[in-house]
């Protein structure tokens, strides 16, 4: 049987192959990120830890409050996979709870701080004049405040009025107060350059509401900065939680976090090494995966970066017989 070749079909195929295919920017960024094996590995580790923090409790019949009087300070065993603490509490249950609290603090503080810094910084650049001066003064005053003293007062005996809140929620509030100022200053600088663009000036002349211009024209154009700052903010919040809890001014009992577990076992590393190395390893995996993702996102957003190849579209050839 003879194949009939349609010249019109061949002409259409040539046009498809030779035409420039427009690819959405978000799709290009996604392709570049997925080509970065290190970043994908970081994403996989972070998702695995996130899943572990919510379903890891089903791996053991014990919880973070039940004491096993027959296995006090025991190492890993079939009954307690990661061993028990000096009080006979299952370490796996405590690590699951601590990982969940640390991730929750990091994600909430990282996300809200980016939102606050974007709105505050864009508003400073948009309104300018006296509004910018007043907002900048407030920003500089907050930057000069000693964060560690405020955390100590809020979570210690000086914060009796706030003790009704869970210690992890109180720490989120305190960290959120001090985590957005640096990004807000950078957003202000970038937004001031965007204010000189023609489309922003046209929107102002057309009488579009101010907050609508900020939301639709300024914030989306600094999206790459905000995404990168989100991953950095999550990492910074996790490390701050670990540091404050380690020195005793962060998470308080009965709440548990990775910082609390590391701090409680520091003085007994030789006697109960599993109590120290297990939460420390989880913390390294959590912060390391976020750093790997941040590097991959930075390269994906940078159009001049060639570390992960190009994002050219490949059009499959269609054969007409």
From TrEMBL:
One GO BP annotation of this record: transmembrane transport
Domain ABC transmembrane type-1: 103-294
Compositionally biased residues, Low complexity: 304-313
InterPro entries for this protein: BP-dependent_transpt_permease, MetI-like, MetI-like_sf, OppC_N
Membrane topology classification: Multi-pass membrane protein
Domain of life: Bacteria
PROSITE patterns, alphabetized: ABC_TM1
Transmembrane segment boundaries: 39-59, 101-122, 134-156, 168-187, 271-291
Transport keyword on record: yes
Keyword annotations from UniProtKB, A to Z: Cell inner membrane, Cell membrane, Membrane, Peptide transport, Protein transport, Transmembrane, Transmembrane helix, Transport
Primary residence: membrane
SUPFAM superfamilies tied to this protein: MetI-like
Family according to the record: Belongs to the binding-protein-dependent transport system permease family. OppBC subfamily.
Descriptive protein name: Oligopeptide transport system permease protein OppC
């Amino acid at each position: 049987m003879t194949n009939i070749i349609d010249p019109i079909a061949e002409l259409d195929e040539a046009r498809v192959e030779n035409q420039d295919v427009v690819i959405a920017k978000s799709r290009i960024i996604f392709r570049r990120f997925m080509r970065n094996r290190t970043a994908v590995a970081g994403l996989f580790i972070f998702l695995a830890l996130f899943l572990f923090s919510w379903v890891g409790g089903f791996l053991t019949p014990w919880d973070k409050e039940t004491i096993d009087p027959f296995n006090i300070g025991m190492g890993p065993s079939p009954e307690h996979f990661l061993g028990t603490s000096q009080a006979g509490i299952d370490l796996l249950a405590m690590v699951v709870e601590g990982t969940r609290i640390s991730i929750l603090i990091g994600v909430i503080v990282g996300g809200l701080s980016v939102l606050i810094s974007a709105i505050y910084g864009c508003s400073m650049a948009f309104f300018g004049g006296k509004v910018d001066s007043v907002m900048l003064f407030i920003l500089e005053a907050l930057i000069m405040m000693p964060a560690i003293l405020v955390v100590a007062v809020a979570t210690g005996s000086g914060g009796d009025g706030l003790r009704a809140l869970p210690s992890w929620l109180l720490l989120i509030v305190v960290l959120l107060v001090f985590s957005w100022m640096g990004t807000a200053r950078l957003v202000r600088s970038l937004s001031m350059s965007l204010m000189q663009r023609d489309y922003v000036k046209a929107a102002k002349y057309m009488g579009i509401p101010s907050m609508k211009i900020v939301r639709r024209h300024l914030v989306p154009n600094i999206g790459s900065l905000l995404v990168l700052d989100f991953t950095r903010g999550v990492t910074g919040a996790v490390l701050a939680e670990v540091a404050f809890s380690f020195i005793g001014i962060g998470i308080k009992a009965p709440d548990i976090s990775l910082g609390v577990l590391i701090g409680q076992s520091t003085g007994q590393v030789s006697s109960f090494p599993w109590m120290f190395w297990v939460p420390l390893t989880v913390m390294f995996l959590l912060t390391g995966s976020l750093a790997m993702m941040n590097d991959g996102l930075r390269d994906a957003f940078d159009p001049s970066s060639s570390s992960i190849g190009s994002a050219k579209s490949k059009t499959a050839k269609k054969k007409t017989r």
